[in-house]
Specification:
The complex is a heterodimer of chains A (211) and B (403). Chain A is built from 5 helices and 9 strands, in the order E-E-H-H-E-E-E-E-H-E-E-H-H-E. With 211 residues, chain A is α+β, with helices and mostly antiparallel strands. In chain A, strand 3 and strand 4 form a beta hairpin. The longest helix of chain A is centred in the C-terminal third of the chain and has 16 residues. Chain A is elongated. The termini of chain A are close together. Chain B has 9 helices and 7 strands, in the order ααααααβαββαββαββ. In chain B, a hairpin with a 2-residue loop joins strand 6 and strand 7. Classes of the chains: A alpha+beta (211), B alpha+beta (403).
């Protein structure tokens, strides 16, 4: 297999923060694409901050070969455990789950670089022009469970303080609660999992090997 | 409702919303900075680190330190999530406040516009009543119950229409009486001339009979006397006519009605055998503008009628004075047999009487009402039954007097 020269077309981060300069590499391997993504994604200031906060950070990977009308998805969850100072990872790709415990951030970065991202069963690409692989990584800073917990905690924080041991106030006990619930729901649903950062690359693929 | 008013209302609504949005942004953007303050996270980081270090130093208390560590770590994570969503939460908070404000403002605007529309409809209705009033319609009932500005205007229209109706009735009565007065004046004039001539001739005839003497003198003198008596009766009849025709305009002066009635009861207390006059004078004076002589005449007429109705039996005429919205009222109530039903429709018309021929012409009530109408007041029959009859004299309140 000839290692093709990978050409970075552009790093299209949606923010104006310092760009991740290293670019992914893609190679053909028995009809599948093997992709390696640089660990600089983890070094992004925002990403590193949320990683070290102990939140469960999810990296959502999207691989797309437009000419082949092919899309593949994978996800990686990383959670820092500050008591043990370890990083717990959970990789979900091609229907398989793989979990690792890494002892430091450096180990995590190294492990990240070894991850063999695969876009399997790419059909023969017709035409003369070079094919492209679009890679998108969305960094979601916390999990759905953490989202629920934060919403619940925030809703309790903004409710009217009351002694849980005392009976409800006379008058309209249900009305106050319903109003609090409604206002709480309206405000706390603003806490939502959304991508903290999004990294995009377009990689020009090497010539496809003949089968 | 004009489009201009709607446009102004909407412009005020938009301006108020924008102002609210602007000012609440100044406030709400700040309150979220408190839980997301970096110092909080830094302190929590220290706590987390400290607890972990302490657990190493005190292995026997590891569980305790671990628990504290977990709590701090949980709070640290929650604050981090809040920090990550700070802008969204702030925006949502602003949106909720703004939506509430906008909802309330919209509701107020809609209610205001509906109120405008309703007021416009009410004004249109009042315009119709005003046109009816201008057309001379009396006793208008607008049906307005509210006491706002439009309701008060409606009340004024009703009040004005009542005054119009009252004045029209008064005018009609006065015109009616005036025509009767004119007829009485003409009849009196036509009768008086031949009556005077006949009387003179009868007197001359009596003188001739006296001077001539003879066997038939006494008989002739008796005949002449009878003629003169009848002529005298005719003269009295004509004088009544004349007095009705010549009711003058009252010489109004400010008097205390209470004093007038008290004095009247003293003076005329024994004028009608069997009938007693009763009056319990109130403490305060009741000033009215009236001609005291004429009012006395009215009271005499009423008492005379009552005395005739009592027909020699004992009875009482009670007077009572009180004040009501439209004036000072003098009530005259007897305990006689009441007024015959067939007379009631024409009670205040001249010659309405149930008395026998020669016992009165039925001019008393007509004259009395004319007097009261000339005082800008009225004479009304309040009630009549077998238990008695009640008349009411209404006097307008003099300007500057108590309401």
């Amino acid at each position: 297999m000839i290692l093709a020269a990978l050409l970075l077309v552009g790093e299209l981060s949606e923010t104006s923060r310092p760009a991740v300069r290293a670019s992914p590499q893609a190679t053909w391997e028995e009809g599948s694409l093997r992709v390696r993504i640089p660990s600089q994604v983890l070094l992004d200031v925002e990403v590193r901050r949320v990683l070290q906060s102990g939140l469960t950070v999810t990296f959502l990977f999207d691989f797309a070969v437009p000419r082949a009308r092919l899309e593949r998805h994978a996800s990686l969850q990383v959670r820092y455990e500050p008591w043990d100072e370890t990083y717990l990872t959970s990789l979900l790709s091609q229907g398989q789950k793989r979990e690792e415990t890494l002892s430091s951030f450096d180990s995590l970065a190294k492990w990240w670089e070894t991850l063999p991202w695969t876009v399997p069963n790419v059909p023969p690409l017709e035409g003369n022009s070079r094919a492209e692989l679009k890679i998108t990584i969305s960094v979601v800073p916390f999990s759905a469970t953490e989202e629920r917990d934060a919403r619940h905690w925030f809703a309790q924080s903004i409710e009217e303080p009351r002694d849980l041991g005392s009976p409800p106030a006379a008058g309209a006990p249900g009305a106050q609660s319903t109003r609090d619930d409604m206002l709480g729901a309206l405000i706390t649903t603003a806490i939502k999992r959304r991508a903290l950062r999004t990294f995009r690359w377009i990689v020009t693929l090497p010539e496809q090997e003949r089968r | 409702m004009t489009a201009r008013r709607v446009a102004i209302a909407l412009a005020v609504l938009v301006a108020a919303s924008l102002l609210f949005l602007f000012f609440q942004k100044q406030i709400s953007a700040r309150w979220m900075t408190v839980p997301a303050h970096p110092e909080l996270s830094a302190v929590l980081d220290d706590v987390i680190e400290d607890e972990r270090s302490l657990a190493r130093l005190e292995p026997e208390k590891e569980a305790e330190h671990r628990q504290r560590f977990e709590r701090a770590q949980l709070l640290r994570k929650r604050l981090e999530i809040l920090q990550l969503n700070r802008e969204e939460v702030t925006r949502r908070y602003e949106l909720i406040l703004w939506a509430i404000f906008l909802g309330v403002a919209l509701l107020v605007t809609v209610l205001y516009l509906l109120g405008l529309r309703r007021d416009e409809a009410r004004l249109n209705e009042l315009r119709g009543f005003l046109e009816a009033l201008a057309g001379g319609k009396g006793d208008i009932q607008t049906g307005e119950r509210k006491r706002d500005t439009i309701g008060r205007i409606a009340g004024m229209i009703e009040e004005t229409s009542r005054v119009v109706a009252r004045d029209r009735n008064r005018l009609k009565s006065l015109e009616h009486l005036a025509s009767w007065q004119e007829a009485a004046r003409r009849h009196a004039h036509e009768i008086r001339t031949p009556l005077t001539a006949a009387k003179m001739e009868a007197e001359r005839l009596a003188d001739l009979v006296r001077s001539a003497g003879g066997g038939k003198t006494a008989e002739l003198q008796s005949g002449v006397s009878s003629i003169l008596e009848e002529l005298e009766r005719l003269r009295r009849f004509t004088r009544e006519f004349t007095s009705f025709a010549r009711i003058g305009q009252p010489q109004l002066q400010e008097i205390d009605l209470k004093a007038l009635v008290s004095e009247y009861c003293k003076t005329f207390g024994s004028a009608w055998p069997g009938m007693r006059l009763a009056f319990d004078p109130p403490r305060e004076p009741f000033p009215v503008r009236a001609d005291p002589e004429m009012i006395r005449q009215v009271l005499v007429n009423l008492c005379t009628n009552s005395a005739l109705a009592l027909n020699g039996t004992a009875g009482v005429m009670r007077f009572e004075i009180f004040r009501q919205k439209e004036g000072v009222h003098l009530r005259a109530a007897d305990d006689g047999p009441g007024i015959a039903a067939e007379v009631l429709p024409r009670l205040f018309e001249p010659y309405a009487t149930t008395r026998k021929i020669g016992e009165g012409m039925g001019l008393g009530l007509a004259i009395s009402r004319k007097i009261l109408l000339d005082h800008q007041g009225d004479l009304k029959l309040e009630a009549t039954s077998s238990a008695g009859t009640v008349f009411r004299l209404v006097f307008p309140i003099p300007h500057g007097g108590p309401p």
